[in-house]
Design a protein that fits this description.
The structure is a single chain. With 262 residues, this protein is of the alpha+beta class. The protein has two domains: 163 residues, CofE-like (60s Ribosomal Protein L30, Chain: A, 2-Layer Sandwich), CATH 3.30.1330; 70 residues, CofE-like fold. Helices cover 26% and strands 24% of the residues. It is built from six helices and twelve strands. Strands 1-12-2-8-9 form a five-stranded mixed sheet. It has a three-stranded antiparallel sheet with strand order 4-5-6. Helix 1 crosses helix 5 and helix 3 crosses helix 4. The longest helix has 16 residues.
């Protein structure tokens, strides 16, 4: 069988992922790029062209001051009612409601909400883990801008072109467990579109659009680990699609017209 489409490019069969430690506790106003750069230098790995750095949103949010002290929150009547029904902290639920653009579902103490970024996730991304007591952490206001800023600063420091992913952990429909996903992307294509190409048997791919930024973020979490204070991972050896221009995390958000869960 013959066809006119270009062959699927061959990619290296090895990918290396390094967890970078040594990043101190981040506080509002800290220079995350400087902290990440110092971690890269301390690792002895340096940065090479095409490397991808995955940075957990938590250190970005902390540096950007996206923290809320619960004692300063006055719960609304709705938050108080939901908290009473679910046995939750009304102040935290109030923060979730404030961060939500749209509530998708509330049931059994779980709030599934759409954020202003377009992400649909539990509790609108409001998180009480890895922060001080009586404090919750919000998502960055603009994760793509945060990723772009990190990329520019690191590129200037090391003199190489790298990709940056700002990640967070999301649940998934139909599956147990949470996985890291990309909420901010700079310097790489977040999607690999194989539609119109043919597999070795000649079958034309019609729906194969891979969320490669999410896959890279999920792989990075295996070395970052929730409890290891290792908020940065360096991925080396990833080869992006040759014809895919760099994009942003917003490219991963499904068009509401195609979202069957709305």
């Amino acid at each position: 069988m013959t066809h006119s489409s270009a062959p699927i490019p061959q990619h290296p069969s090895e990918l290396r992922i390094f967890g970078l430690g040594g990043v101190p506790e981040v506080t509002p106003g800290d220079d995350v790029a400087a902290l990440v750069g110092a971690a890269v230098e301390a690792s002895g790995l340096g940065l090479e062209p095409g490397d991808v750095l995955v940075v957990t949103h938590k250190i970005v949010s902390k540096a950007e001051g996206r923290l809320v002290r619960l004692p300063e929150v006055e719960p609304s009547a709705l938050a108080s009612r939901l908290a009473a029904d679910a046995g939750k902290d009304a102040r935290q639920i109030e923060v979730v409601l404030r961060e939500a653009k749209r509530i998708s579902r509330m049931d059994r103490g779980v709030i599934i909400a759409e954020t202003v970024h377009g992400f649909v996730c539990a509790n609108a991304g409001v998180d009480a883990s890895n922060v001080a007591s009586e404090v919750v952490c919000l998502l960055p206001e603009d994760p793509d801008a945060s990723a772009a800023g990190l990329r520019a600063a690191l590129g200037e420091r090391f003199g190489v072109d790298v990709g940056v992913i700002v990640s967070d952990s999301f649940g998934r429909p139909w599956r147990n467990g949470i996985v890291n996903v990309a909420i901010g992307v700079a310097g790489l294509a977040p999607l690999a579109d194989y539609r119109g190409q043919h597999d070795p048997a000649g079958y034309e791919l019609r729906a194969s659009v891979l969320a490669v930024a999410d896959e890279l973020a999920a792989a990075a979490e295996l070395v970052m680990h929730k409890l290891e204070a290792r908020p940065v991972a360096l991925i080396r050896g990833y080869v992006p699609p040759t014809d895919a221009p760099p994009g942003t995390g917003r490219d991963l958000v499904m068009d509401p017209a195609r979202d069957l869960y709305r």
